[in-house]
Specification:
Blueprint lengths: L19 E5 L4 E11 L5 E10 L4 E8 L2 E6 L2 E2 L5 E2 L5 E2 L6 E7 L2 E6 L2 E6 L1 E7 L6 E7 L2 E6 L2 E2 L5 E2 L6 E2 L6 E7 L2 E6 L2 E6 L1 E7 L6 E7 L2 E6 L2 E2 L5 E7 L6 E7 L2 E6 L2 E2 L5 E2 L3 E2 L6 E7 L2 E6 L2 E2 L5 E7 L6 E7 L2 E6 L2 E2 L5 E2 L3 E2 L6 E7 L2 E6 L2 E6 L1 E7 L6 E7 L2 E6 L2 E6 L1 E2 L3 E2 L6 E7 L2 E6 L2 E2 L6 E2 L6 E3 L2 E8 L5 E8 L1
Antiparallel strand pairs: 1-2, 2-55, 3-4, 4-5, 5-6, 7-9, 8-9, 9-10, 10-11, 12-13, 13-14, 14-15, 16-18, 17-18, 18-19, 19-20, 21-22, 22-23, 23-24, 25-26, 26-27, 27-28, 29-31, 30-31, 31-32, 32-33, 34-35, 35-36, 36-37, 38-40, 39-40, 40-41, 41-42, 43-44, 44-45, 45-46, 47-49, 48-49, 49-50, 50-51, ...
């Protein structure tokens, strides 16, 4: 199955000095301030790719090194010096401004959480927080023994722990599942107890209510799906195990010889040459998937088949199932389909996006070297490039960033709002009355709020971390002096 590339600009950005000021224009007034979050001292090596941020709290963490070794800086607090810091760490707790990371010293690895070291092991990797942020799990090794550690409590020992899929927490954070290899058998482990063992296992998935765990087992080159006490027939392959949003329905894709089909609620559906991922209508639980026959792709929705296409892109239901949306390609042209209605043809398209209420759809289309935004089926003005589309929380306003002649602007309700050297993702206030985005002029970055530029200007904002609106203010993390950064948090009250 072919998917379509999303044409979005990736921008690197940064922040300001400490001051308090106010700004007014003919139409807008707001107050702004900034405060230092963290600073990198002179003579200390900084690893920019290690930066992680908690957007909710404005907290930041990154890796530094000096003559003694490497250490993690969390806001203003510097951690213990180690020989090295583990790959892909530090990581932030999803709920609170807490970090965890792996420190390596004298050939040993230790996980550091809340500035406290755990047990020392020969190796550690794969830090994963539970959804509620209360549990931390990871893969550890001592000698030939591998095990999963949850909150510093070791699980059973295996010869290895599967790392092609991360350790899996249930949605309610009460259960943990993973796979371990012992004596040539793969064990499916739930809450540190083996619930199945065979030649192979994959695709562990919890139901939305956390009461069920589904998975696939391999026996003599064939695969079976297990759900509670039910075991499917043996197939050449199984994939895309999926629950409905209410957890009452279950489906997966299967291959039997040269036939591909969807199994839903233990019943086999029609066979095709290939099939895509099954999904369920959140409102009606109707089964939907993509399929291919004789080189042509189409959507199967219940008992109906959509138009034949050369390729099918992503497909989804909007909020409360107000619309079913997908993209497709035919004869070199690309289309978006909304409730079965086909759009105008385009040379390229972006991934369609829905409004929070699920009633409106926006996407970008390219024709003749120009991009246009298509909102509710209506085409806007053409530009050289479009990016960063969004809807306001009340779904009434559509906004995106446009580019012409190497300059960028915010387009909102088809009105352009200033032109800049670069611009980032627009963010609305929770009441939909205000909008802010990052922008750059003359090598300095700042926020633009309701069309007015902030007085606080910085060298850059953190890459891929847009402003947020919370407690009546916009806030964003930036930096000055990229070589030895001074990280600051900017707050603006519209």
């Amino acid at each position: 199955m072919k998917c379509f590339k999303i044409n979005k600009l990736v921008l690197a950005i940064a922040v300001t000095s400490i001051l308090i000021c106010s700004h007014a224009s003919s139409t807008h007034a707001f107050s702004e301030n900034s405060s230092t979050i963290s600073s990198v001292p002179q003579g200390i090596k900084f690893f920019p790719k290690s930066i992680v941020s908690d957007n909710a709290s404005g907290s930041i963490a990154y890796v530094l090194s000096n003559k003694l070794g490497m250490f993690v800086m969390h806001d203003q607090i510097s951690g213990k010096v180690y020989d090295a810091i583990g790959k892909n760490t530090p990581v932030f707790n999803p709920i609170r401004p807490e970090i965890s990371y792996i420190g390596l010293a004298a050939g040993k690895s230790v996980v550091v959480r809340r500035e406290k070291e755990g047990t020392s092991y020969d190796g550690a990797a794969g830090l994963v927080y539970s959804p509620d942020g209360n549990n931390l799990a990871y893969h550890a090794q001592t000698g030939a023994n591998h095990f999963v550690v949850k909150n510093e409590s070791k699980g059973p020992a295996f010869q290895t722990i599967a790392n092609d899929e991360p350790i899996l927490f249930s949605p309610d954070s009460k259960h943990i599942a993973y796979r371990g290899l012992l004596l040539k058998e793969w064990h499916v482990v739930l809450d540190d107890k083996t619930i199945a063992k065979t030649q192979g296992a994959k695709e562990l998935v919890f139901s939305p209510d956390s009461s069920k765990l589904a998975y696939a087992l391999r026996e003599e080159s064939k695969w079976k799906v297990i759900l509670d006490d039910w075991k499917s027939k043996a197939y050449n392959n199984v994939f895309r195990l999926t629950f409905s949003s209410d957890g009452k329905h279950f489906a997966f894709a299967a291959q039997d010889s040269n036939d591909f089909f969807i199994m839903a609620d233990q019943k086999k559906n029609e066979s095709f040459d290939l099939v895509g991922s099954p999904i369920f209508d959140p409102k009606t639980s109707e089964l939907v998937y993509s399929a291919q026959k004789k080189g042509k792709w189409f959507i199967v929705k219940g008992k109906e088949k959509g138009p034949e296409l050369d390729a099918i892109g992503p497909y989804f239901f909007t909020f409360e199932s107000n619309h079913f949306v997908y993209s497709g390609e035919k004869d070199g042209k690309n289309y978006v389909f909304i409730d079965g209605v086909q759009s105008e043809p385009y040379e390229k398209i972006s991934l369609p996006e829905s409004s929070p209420d699920g009633k409106r759809i926006m996407f970008f289309g390219l024709n003749g070297g120009k991009w246009i935004a298509v909102i509710d089926g209506k085409q806007g003005k053409s530009y050289e490039m479009l990016s960063f589309s969004t809807f306001s929380p009340d779904s009434k306003t559509a906004a995106y960033i446009a580019q012409n002649d190497k300059k960028m602007t915010l387009v909102m309700n088809e009105n352009e709002n200033g032109w800049y050297d670069a611009a980032g993702f627009p963010v609305f206030s929770s009441d939909s009355k205000h909008i802010a985005f990052e922008a750059s002029k003359n090598d300095k970055w700042f926020l633009v709020i309701n069309g007015s530029e902030s007085k606080i200007k910085v060298d850059n904002f953190l890459k891929n971390i847009p402003p947020k609106f919370e407690n009546g203010k916009f806030s964003v993390i930036g930096l000055n002096n990229p070589e030895n950064p001074n990280f600051v948090q900017i707050e603006i009250y519209p």
